[in-house]
């Protein structure tokens, strides 16, 4: 695959930030092209959120695959519009789409923690989980493809480690988050609803 050009990265920045205004888009694009740094994308999402599922499957993953890990790095924050309640034994959680969503968020938090340092595997793992009929159930195929063990993931999900990891995701999520997924692109925050150029993002990537 041909390496992404500065023009492609410019198009990527403009596409993602089009809804934020030309001034912000130009500033972010300039940072990427002149400094030749990786595109930094943080995604705050929920395991059972339809918009989160569509964004990760249809936009984020294809874009990452087109740009490559040398040009783009993704930080996943599976939490969204949840709430954390400390207890004597750990934490309890309330998630927007119910307890099953909390479990799905824990599955990804546990997997992501074990894949630190390998962003390519993290993206593949999250995309696999979010592509399942029920992301709140551990899928052995997703785990195996990531080089992980299902038993280890389930021990994390059902134990204190999973609670701590999910609470940590909550600390990285703004308390006033009003729409999921929220995307932070090179330090500029937006939401899925405001990214009107999603199709352009994919088109710009595959055109490289």
TrEMBL record:
The keyword Nucleotidyltransferase does not apply. InterPro entries: Interferon-induced_GILT. It is found in: Secreted. Keywords: Glycoprotein, Secreted, Signal. Pfam families: GILT. It comes from the Eukaryota. Residues 1-27 form the signal peptide. GO terms for cellular component: extracellular region. GO terms for molecular function: oxidoreductase activity, acting on a sulfur group of donors, disulfide as acceptor. Its main location: secreted. Belongs to the GILT family. This is GILT-like protein 1. It comes from Frankliniella fusca.
């Amino acid at each position: 695959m041909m390496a992404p050009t500065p023009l492609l990265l410019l198009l990527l920045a403009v596409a993602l930030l089009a809804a934020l205004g030309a001034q912000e888009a130009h500033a972010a694009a300039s940072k990427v092209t002149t400094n030749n740094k990786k595109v930094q994308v943080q995604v705050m999402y929920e395991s059972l959120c339809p918009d989160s599922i569509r964004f990760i499957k249809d936009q984020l993953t294809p874009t990452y695959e087109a740009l490559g890990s040398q040009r783009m790095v993704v930080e996943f924050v599976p939490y969204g519009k949840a709430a954390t309640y400390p207890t004597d034994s750990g934490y309890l959680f309330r998630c927007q789409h119910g307890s099953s969503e909390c479990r799905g968020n824990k599955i990804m938090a546990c997997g992501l923690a074990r894949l630190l340092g390998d962003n390519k595997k993290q993206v593949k793992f999250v995309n696999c989980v979010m592509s399942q009929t029920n992301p709140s159930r551990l899928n052995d195929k997703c785990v195996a493809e990531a080089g992980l063990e299902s038993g280890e993931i389930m021990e994390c999900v059902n134990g204190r480690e999973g609670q701590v990891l999910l609470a940590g995701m909550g600390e990285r999520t703004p308390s006033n988050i009003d729409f999921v997924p929220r995307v932070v692109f090179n330090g500029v925050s937006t939401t899925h609803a405001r990214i009107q150029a999603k199709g352009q993002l994919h088109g710009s990537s595959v055109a490289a």
